[in-house]
Amino acid sequence: MPFAFTVTEFLALAPGVSGEGEEAGRLEAAMIAMNLGSVASRAVDTLSGGERQRIAISRALAQEAPLLLLDEPTAHLDLRYQIALFQALREKAETKKAAILVVLHDLVLAARWADQIALMDHGQVVAVGSPDTVLTEENLREVYQVPLGILKQGEKILAIYPRDDLMPS
Questions:
Q1: Are 56 and 31 in contact (CB under 8 A)?
Q2: What is the predicted pLDDT for the residue at 63?
Q3: Looking at the DSSP assignment, which residues form a beta bridge with residue 130?
Q4: Model pLDDT for residues 22-73, shown as the tens digit of each residue
Q5: Nearest of 149, 69, 77 to residue 107 by alpha carbon
Q6: pTM listed for this prediction
Q7: What is the Cα–Cα distance from 41 to 159, expressed in whole angstroms?
Q8: What three-state secondary structure class fits 72?
Q9: Could you give the CA distance from residue 17 to residue 11 in angstroms, rounded to a whole number?
Q10: For the chain, which terminus, N or C, has the lower number of CB atoms within 10 Å?
Q11: Which pairs count as long-range contacts for 50-58, CB under 8 Å and 24+ apart, including other chains?
């Protein structure tokens, strides 16, 4: 940050978010979704990496963009903020009919929140579809070159773990 903007001042600089009228309501809702009330008057350059990440997410949520592109948005976020992030994204997708594309390395989070997944390997798409059809042991072994197991409850993926029984000695 070249200037010591407060969180509120910085967020009001987002395109399409003047901080007035309906835009102010969107900004406030985004700040609440990312639990930024306690840092709203603090200078952005004094905040932790996780707090700055939540500010960036709030800025994106406050805009009326029909498409959000997020690259590793959970970086620096504690679990509670990861959940809050995906709840806010889900709400935006459903209420505003926004398309949301998220790049993640956390396959369990992707499986929990994504409607569709594209599993990629070195820039090439290996599989596309619902999480339970894309995140298979075979696909994961092909991409990650290690044997992985998948713990499921019904069709929900609960965990992806290294398969010790298949690891080379």
A1: no
A2: 87
A3: none
A4: 777 888 889 999 999 999 999 999 999 999 999 999 999 988 889 999 999 9
A5: 149
A6: 0.85
A7: 39
A8: coil
A9: 8
A10: C
A11: 50/76, 50/77, 50/78, 50/81, 52/76, 53/77, 54/81, 55/7, 55/10, 55/11, 57/30, 57/85, 57/88, 58/11, 58/27, 58/30, 58/31, 58/33, 58/34
> Using CA atoms, how far apart are residues 91 and 145, in angstroms rounded to an integer?
36
Q: If you search the block for the tokens 């390395």, which residue do you land on? A: 105
Residue listed under structure tokens 């290690």: 146
Which is nearest to 61 in space by CA: 78, 73, 72?
73
Read off φ and ψ for residue 27, nearest 5 degrees.
Answer: -65, -45
Q: Which amino acid is at 9?
A: E
Mean pLDDT, rounded, of the chain: 91
Query: What tokens appear for 117 in the block?
Result: 């997944």
Give tens-digit pLDDT for 70-101: 999 999 999 999 999 999 999 999 999 999 99
Q: Is residue 169 predicted with pLDDT exceeding 60?
A: no
